[in-house]
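Q: Protein A?
A:
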Amino acid sequence: MPKLNQADTARGGSLLLIESDAKSAQLLVASLTECLSGAPEIVTAPNGRQALTCLRSAQFDIILADLSSLGDISERTEDVVGRLVKLAHGALVLALSDGASVSSAVAAMRAGAHDYAVKPLNGPALAARIGEMAERHGKCRTLSVEATPHIEVADFAGFIGGSSAMQFVYEQIERIAASAAPVFITGESGTGKDLCAEALHSKGLRTGKPIIAVNCAAIPRDLMESELFGVARGAFTGAHEDRKGAAELADGGTLFLDEIGEMDLSLQSKLLRFLQTGALSRLGEAGVRQVDVRVICATNRNPMQLISEKKFREDLFYRLHVLPIHLPPLRQRPTDVLVLARHFLGHYGQEERKTFAGFSPEAANWLVSGEWPGNVRQLQNLVRRLVVMYDGGQITASMAKTADVEGQHRPAENVPAMMPQPASILPMWQQEQRIIENAIVQFGGNISMAAAALEISPSTIYRKRQSWADLSRVA
């Protein structure tokens, strides 16, 4: 195996592919060569032993390791990957596994792999994953990876972004939009839960009918019942006429209950009866009215924790939790950051009648490397602030930092050059989060199946999701 020279790595980086299936390796190499820019040097190894030999004689920027191809080394997956990582000299390690071996992927991440992907993967999908990982760890230039490598920039029912995580969300919406079953949307604040509800409605069979949204956290508890179910004339002082509630107004269409976890327990029991029967009574009215609505609800909190704290009825949760959708945080889809930022820059620039020439390379890198605890909403606010503060031209890193009044999405600066950059090593909770969330995605949002594959209990996943949300708010 010849040693790679500096000219090779300068062209487009170097990759080591560990794959025992020669046909699959050949097809993947051809596809990656076409998808990745800069003519990368790709070396293949059919097993773990040859991979270790390659790593001793050459340096690589990224290692793609099919975990099933490492079986020639009689060690645990965790130990084999650990040896690869030690010999990698800083290369990014992406573990590849089939859907049945998620536990092996977990072991690989524990041993130092930077990320994992589930097979089968085609060239464009794998190139996209490499691009996301390179951006996250600051190696885009080394690998000559484009900011959004061969990802279609999607504008889906108001959503902007074409990352693999969002493509999965789009597929879920397309599949379940036509159903009448309830949808339970989870995700951190600012990820677009209201946009998801609107997309489900617009792509479903009720698109010509109204969608009525109720924010359960914004309405006082003593007014919530009348807002939801309506009021009969004379029900209380000031009720001079009959008034329809949100459920009646949504008849034939969609009722969206945002922040469902904030609903009072006494009203939850009435909502449960309404879901079971489709019948409601206005406040102060003896009769019942039949309505036909599809219910979509959303929360940024952990429903299982709310249940354990006796703040949310378990029977109501299972009545609503029929078709779950989880919206990934922005930090898990870095390839969408610039797409979103450019979209907002164009939109608000037009609104303010100003012309901007995009983002400088330094500003783009600064944006992509952020954690964005406020997710898309935080990025949107930052870009709008930039448009208002400046008169046009190119957005520089200095301008972006000045506009970043929250200052929460940036890692610590002024780190000595000889020390590893904070962005190059993710905290353990974030690595664990990526493993679990990816497992949930692979099982179509089914937390019970993902938990079984990870050999943990579903309650553990719900508990960890809440702890991640708390950590994000503190970050």
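Q: Protein B?
A:
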Amino acid sequence: MLELLKAVLFGIVEGITEWLPISSTGHMILFNQFVKLNVSEDFWKLFEVVIQFGAILAVVLLFWNKLWPFTTKTVKVHRSKNETGSRFQTKKKVCWKRGALDMWLKIIVACIPAAIVGILFDDLIDELFYHPIPVAVALIVVGVIFIIVETVRGKKRPTTTSIDAITYKEAVIIGLFQLAAAVFPGTSRSGATIVGALMIGVSRATAAEFTFFLAVPVMFGASLLKAAKYILAGIAMTGGEALILLVGTVVAFIVSVFVIKFLMGYIKKHDFKIFGWYRIILGILVILILR
């Protein structure tokens, strides 16, 4: 029961920090310094990534109409011809929604850099940077960048106010910022992509929404990669570990639903500076406590 309670706490941390630009991976690493799950090291590496799958499902649920690229339309099909003229019958035809193919191509383009680096250097990145101090440094650096970008940006009107208006060049730029988060835990995937989007003139709401959409293939791919490595290594998962993973994932899903709704409402009236200050304060505390 104690381990399940810990899994609930980790699910809450994941659900809150995955979508706020404050680094979910960083918080999971730091939280694990104080509330350790009584599991193997291999299972922990699997848990901290696969638990993100619950957060992905929250995005899919809330943005299903925009993410699902297909729709149906009624068309007339020629059936036969007689003296009085042609006869037709109607049938449903599956087709792409308007703009859906273009949107998904932009998402794929933005995900390519992080996907390549993640596949090639996943283990090396874990070894070098998945430690409290590198996470703390990343928290502080990106926090400072957030404050600078929002200060410089000020009251300037954004030039891109919808995902349809994002160009492929802008998608590549946002993808490169996402790459930084893939390499340096504590950077925050959502934080990096939002900062990158703001810097090139994308509105806050559009930046956040595009970040949510990017998370679907990126986080699903990361979860699949970790699970595949775990299975191929021949490591057996106990029933207790499977239950811990399930509980953490479900809690992350439920919490994510509320956090995403909160963030989309919050940024309509506020900027991201508060998250920048939070990151700086947290990073300093981590260095002072864990140095």
